From TrEMBL:
Modified residues (N6-(pyridoxal phosphate)lysine): K35
Catalysis: reaction(s): L-alanine = D-alanine
Source organism of this protein record: Thalassolituus marinus
Protein name: Alanine racemase
Isomerase listed as a keyword: yes
Entry's EC annotation: 5.1.1.1
Positions bound to substrate: R131, M303
Taxon lineage: Bacteria, Pseudomonadati, Pseudomonadota, Gammaproteobacteria, Oceanospirillales
Length: 369
């Protein structure tokens, strides 16, 4: 391996986080959400790690489900956005996929479909997110229509929180009230708890939880919660120092000279940039860990390189740098980049070397480069 930019995925940490989700609602079931390439962690390795204990998986679309099926994953897979055209229904039926249904056009397509095996439907109720789903006024009729179809094997009542990551928001209680009102009219298994709902809203623990970001060891909460301490970070983004310079007061660093030294400054250049997925908008002062010591980015992030402050740091060429991971949480880095951990994880690009720990194949540790 030449360029040292590497992302290391701890699959055992992901398994631990799934078990945590299950332990919070031990009598219920939990989908492992692996959409968007398992939030940048690798959908196939993650699903293989979890398949022996996950109740089912969830992805955004049929392409993501097909990737798992080709890789040999056999547990049920829910399509969170449902299907986009009627010609997907045969594949959904034949490959044990479950599908969300959120509009009348989808119901009409199912009604007209000739399929070998009936479908498991997750009928979406809009309880206040106002993104997908039937309104409370529309839902009972949609439920009754699907219930009468021979093409339908089961219906799960599904909704989605808009503000569960804010423990003080009154919106969550209002959404649950709407959910309960409809559930009494349309008796079905229920799913609404995302990671935030799973972690701190016990009243949202229904038949199916849907942990997503928490599987990857990142808290969904802007304000830390006590339970966050039980999450294990799964992704470590790392690289090495490739150059060191000693600069004088008044010397500028990087494009446009946005950082100017106010004293004698030792500057390290690291092999990482926005072409690797590290956010260009990261500000001077964004934390990094160099050789086990905490320091900061200085100057602008460029395409292939970042400059860091080595003043007072015992480090030189070849020493390790952690951009986020077990020593430095992504949730601390993200606000310095005007973003959230979700975009940090999903933004890693193909040229970064990928390494997996926590699961052995016949050839040893799984790696991808």
């Amino acid at each position: 391996m030449a360029r040292p930019a590497t992302v290391t995925i701890d699959l055992e940490a992901i398994a631990h986080n799934y078990r945590l989700a299950k332990s919070l609602a031990p009598e219920q079931q939990a989908l492992a959400v692996v959409k968007a390439n398992a939030y940048g962690h690798g959908a196939v390795p993650v699903a293989r790690k979890l398949e022996s204990e996950a109740d089912a998986f969830a992805v955004a679309c049929i392409e993501e489900a097909a990737e798992l099926r080709v890789a040999g994953i056999r547990k049920p897979i829910l399509l969170l956005e449902g299907f986009f055209s009627a010609d997907e229904l045969n594949y959904i039926s034949e490959h044990n996929l479950w599908t969300a249904v959120h509009n009348q056009q989808q119901i009409d397509a199912i009604t007209s479909a000739s399929i070998k095996k009936p479908l498991h439907i997750w009928l979406k109720l809009d309880t206040g997110m106002h993104r997908l789903g039937f309104s409370a006024a529309e839902y009972p009729a949609a439920w009754q229509q699907l219930k009468a179809l021979p093409q339908v094997a089961s219906i799960t009542l599904m909704s989605h929180f808009s503000s569960a990551d804010d423990p003080h928001s009154p919106v969550t209680a209002a959404q649950l009230q709407c959910l309960d009102d409809i559930s009494r009219q349309c008796p079905s298994p229920v799913s609404i708890a995302n990671s935030a709902g799973t972690l701190i809203h016990s009243s949202a623990h229904r038949q199916w939880q849907r942990p997503g970001i928490m599987l990857y060891g990142s808290s969904p909460f802007a304000e830390g919660q006590a339970i966050d301490q039980q999450l294990r970070p799964a992704m470590t983004l790392s690289t090495e120092i490739i150059a060191v310079h000693d600069l004088q007061p008044g010397d500028a660093v990087g494009y446009s000279g946005t950082f100017v030294c106010d004293k004698a400054t030792r500057v390290g250049t690291i092999a990482m940039g926005y072409a690797d997925g590290y956010p260009r908008q990261a500000k001077t002062g964004t934390p990094v860990i160099v050789n086990g010591q905490r320091t900061r980015i200085i100057g602008r992030v460029s395409m292939d390189m970042i400059t860091v402050d080595l003043t007072g740091i015992n480090a030189g060429i070849g020493d390790p740098v952690e951009l986020w991971g077990k020593q430095l949480l992504a949730n601390e880095v993200a606000p310095c980049c005007d973003t959230i951990s979700y975009t940090l994880f999903t933004g890693i690009t193909r040229r970064v070397h990928h390494r997996y720990t926590g699961q052995r194949s016949s050839g040893g540790l799984l790696t991808a480069v």
